[in-house]
Amino acid sequence: MSGTMTSRRVIRLAVNSRAWKPTEGEWTLAAQCVQKEEKERIGKFVFKKDSKPSMIGRLLIRRVLADMTGRDFIDIRLRRTDKGKPFLETAGSGEDFHGSFNVAHHGDYAVLAADAHHAVGTDVMKVEHRKDIRKFFSTLRRQLTEQEWLTVERQEGDKDKMAMFYRFWCLKESYVKAIGTGIGFQVSRLDFHVPTEKLSMNRMVRDTSVYLDGKKQTDWLFEETLLDADHCVAIATNIGATDTYKESQDARSFEFLTAVDLLSRCRPLVGSQPDPEYWAMFSARQESPMAQRS
After folding, report:
1. Is the entire prediction scored with pTM above 0.70?
2. Largest CB tally within 10 Å, which of 100, 196, 232, 270?
């Protein structure tokens, strides 16, 4: 992350959490750089594949908010709404943050999207190839609209059909996370239209539109790309009733960091101490259920 981040009002970051094999020093430092309640929350995960992206997500939030507000990293204090969404406490020093931030993780990646002035939500999905694709689609039939299912079914081959399904899922999740209403929102109310049907790496698609209860929503911008061949990501931004946001922002993709890069820009919080037991608990875990069975 460059030192010019404070001048950027829009930030998108991605970290390959699966590639991170934490040393004792790295995991211990990471635990000192998050609030106690977040450390405890992360400590409850059973597998490393869940602990690592969750830790990275917390560190991403703290680092980006420090950079965007000019506050010291150790002065970032996060709280949660009654729906569990994290937000930044009012500043004692530095700037308040009137924008929005959101993290997501799935598969190999943890991602963050932040905007200094607009509500934003993001989601990432690893496209998982299934042998029972018909049963899978049948189970989730009510989550997509008929138009969306037609788009899924006209893709060539099961692999492309699954990729389009997960793309729609990302779009719906990013919208729901941006509006902050929680899991009670019926995603079948959202009908996404994707003029550009193929996503690619290093290119941000921005022509997707959404209809809510049959009415086109002109105050939303959706941006989509591939992080790699198997991971799609979407960002929903409530831009308001003007197109100036679309005109003023370049269609850049995500900036990739390593977990070590991220840790190098974090500092232990005041009063935190190295916790050997926390490392011992983490290091004793299996990476994933599959690793446990093998």
Report:
1. yes
2. 232
> Minimal CA–CA distance to 199: which of 236, 148, 174, 233?
233
Among 238, 262, 202, 222, smallest CA distance to 16 is for 262
Return contacts of 20-25, CB within 8 angstroms, 24+ apart.
20/52, 20/56, 20/258, 20/259, 20/260, 22/52, 22/259, 22/282, 24/279, 24/283
Task: Please give the chain's pLDDT, 294 residues, in tens.
Answer: 444 444 568 999 999 999 999 999 999 999 999 999 999 999 999 999 999 999 999 999 999 999 998 899 999 999 988 877 888 988 665 567 888 999 999 999 999 999 999 999 999 999 998 899 999 999 999 999 999 999 999 999 999 999 999 999 999 999 999 998 766 789 999 999 999 999 999 899 999 999 999 999 999 999 999 999 999 999 999 998 765 555 445 556 799 999 999 999 999 999 999 999 999 999 999 999 975 443
Rg (Cα) of the chain, in Å, rounded?
19
Structure tokens at 286: 């299996």
The two tokens of residue 25 are 């020093």
* 3-class secondary structure, 274: coil
**164: helix, coil or strand?**
helix
